[in-house]
Design a protein that fits this description.
two-stranded antiparallel ribbon, alpha+beta, Inorganic Pyrophosphatase, 242 residues, five-stranded mixed β-barrel, 5 helices, globular
Length: 242
C-alpha cells in the first residue's frame, strides 16, 4: 500500500511541476505548441511574416525566438500571413510523397517545419502570433531538389474566407498572386543563374494538403518524438530520484 502511495505522490509532483512550467515559461513555437486538437483538418500556424513586412523573419530552431534572416532582396511582398505548422518537419515521408506525386527522383525534404500561408480579409500587422486556420490546398514546390510544400489555409471564422474548404473555391486571382510570390521571391532580376531553381509542379486540393500535413507531423515524430511525453518522463525520473 505504501508503494502505491509513493507512486501516487510522484505522479502528483510531476503534474504539479508540469503545471508550473506551463505557467512560468512560454512554449517553444515549434516544439512546445500543439499542431492542433483537430489536425490535420484544422491546424495552428505560427506566423513569422505578415504582408507589411519587408524583412524575412524566421524562427531560430534552437531558441524559438524570431530572427532576421534577411531583408527582402527584391520588391516581392508576402501576400498573406506566412508561417509554419508546429510539430511538423519535412523529411523522408514528405519527400517520398512529393516524388510519388511529381514523378521526380532524388528529392529530399527541406528539413524545416511545414510552411503555411493563411488568407484573411482582415489586416494583421504583426507576426510572432498563433492563429487557428483551415487547410484548403497547397503548392507542391521543389526548391533546389528539396520538397518545400506550401499549404494554403484560411483563417478560422474569417468573414470572407472562413467558409471555404477547398482551393477551387478561392478566387483564382488570389491563388495566382500567392503562386507568383513563391515562384519569384528568390528570383534574381539579373537572371544570372545564381539562384536555386524553384518550381511548382502542382496546385493541389484539400485532401492532398491534409496528407502533407499528416506526413510532416509523422516526420517530426520520427525525428524528435513526442516532446510532451519525453518531458513528462524526464520530470518523473527527476522526481523519483529526489
Amino acid at each position: 500500500m505504501s508503494r502505491f502511495t509513493d507512486i501516487q505522490e510522484e505522479m502528483n509532483k510531476t503534474e504539479e511541476l508540469l503545471s508550473i512550467f506551463e505557467q512560468k515559461f512560454v512554449a517553444h513555437p515549434w516544439h512546445g505548441v500543439s499542431i492542433g486538437e483537430n489536425a490535420p483538418e484544422e491546424i495552428k500556424t505560427f506566423v513569422e511574416i505578415n504582408p507589411t513586412d519587408q524583412i524575412k523573419y524566421e524562427i531560430d530552431k534552437e531558441s524559438g525566438h524570431i530572427f532576421i534572416d534577411r531583408p527582402q532582396k527584391y520588391s516581392n511582398i508576402v501576400p498573406a500571413l506566412y508561417g509554419f505548422v508546429p510539430q511538423t518537419y519535412c523529411d523522408k515521408k514528405v519527400a517520398a510523397f512529393c516524388m510519388e506525386k511529381s514523378g521526380r527522383a532524388d528529392i529530399v525534404g527541406d528539413a524545416d517545419p511545414l510552411d503555411v500561408i493563411v488568407l484573411t480579409e482582415r489586416h494583421v500587422d504583426r507576426g510572432n502570433i498563433l492563429v487557428d486556420c483551415i487547410p484548403v490546398g497547397g503548392f507542391r514546390m521543389i526548391d533546389g531538389g528539396e520538397a518545400d510544400d506550401k499549404i494554403i489555409a484560411v483563417l478560422k471564422d474569417d468573414q470572407a474566407y472562413g467558409d471555404i474548404r477547398n482551393i477551387e473555391d478561392l478566387p483564382s486571382k488570389v491563388v495566382d498572386r500567392v503562386k507568383h510570390f513563391f515562384l519569384t521571391y528568390k528570383e534574381n532580376p539579373n537572371n544570372d543563374g545564381s539562384d536555386k531553381k524553384v518550381e511548382i509542379t502542382h496546385t493541389y486540393g484539400r485532401d492532398e494538403a491534409l496528407e502533407v500535413i499528416k506526413l510532416s507531423n509523422e516526420d517530426y515524430l520520427d525525428v524528435y518524438g513526442d516532446i510532451n511525453k519525453r518531458f513528462k518522463e524526464a520530470l518523473s525520473a527527476v522526481v523519483s530520484e529526489s
